[in-house]
């Protein structure tokens, strides 16, 4: 495993350069992609011993954006995210494991609509850089698949041709740029 000790520190997600997205099958024939535009997150990184690293994330459910106002409005209702009652989706890591030189397996508690389940995301480390403003940055990408009905997000509609309007499986996508705190 490579030595990442110089990365040790506390990092804050940079919302301008981070994407927290998702995709779901629609009408069994295509994918709808979207993202959450408002979130906060921190990571305690220990480059010498990644197993003591941790991640926390809070996502504003009302910031869901699929580039379709009518669909976004429906996703905010009781049929899906119930944003008035459940304004946040949260994630808090329970373990971090370096599985390859550039892959970190992060397991933690994902809470959607007051339902908490353990999920695992393999994050590929894309490197560290000093940006033009003197900030130390790190980048990671990862994804995982969840079943939305496990979290009480059960709305669906049957199609005349068979199948359903929205897939149960939701692919969560993370493209992360984080800045080391001073």
From TrEMBL:
Family affiliation: Belongs to the UPF0312 family.
Limits of the Lipid/polyisoprenoid-binding YceI-like domain: 10-179
Name of the protein described by the UniProt record: Polyisoprenoid-binding protein YceI
Domain of life: Bacteria
Listed InterPro entries: Lipid/polyisoprenoid-bd_YceI, TTHA0802/YceI-like_sf
């Amino acid at each position: 495993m490579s030595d990442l000790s110089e990365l040790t520190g506390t990092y804050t997600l940079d919302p301008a350069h981070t994407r927290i997205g998702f995709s779901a099958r629609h009408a069994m024939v295509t994918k709808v992609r979207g993202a959450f535009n408002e979130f906060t997150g921190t990571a305690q990184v220990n480059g010498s011993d990644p197993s003591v690293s941790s991640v926390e994330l809070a996502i504003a459910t009302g910031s869901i954006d699929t580039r379709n106002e009518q669909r976004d409005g429906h996703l905010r209702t009781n049929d899906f995210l119930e944003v008035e009652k459940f304004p946040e989706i949260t994630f808090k890591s329970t373990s971090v494991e370096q599985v390859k030189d550039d892959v970190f397996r992060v397991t933690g508690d994902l809470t959607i609509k007051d339902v908490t389940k353990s999920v695992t995301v393999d994050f590929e480390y894309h490197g560290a850089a000093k940006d033009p403003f003197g900030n130390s940055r790190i980048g990671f990408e990862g994804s995982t698949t969840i079943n939305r009905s496990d979290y009480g997000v059960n709305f669906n509609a049957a199609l005349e041709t068979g199948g359903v309007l929205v897939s149960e499986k939701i692919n969560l996508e993370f493209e992360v740029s984080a800045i080391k705190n001073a």
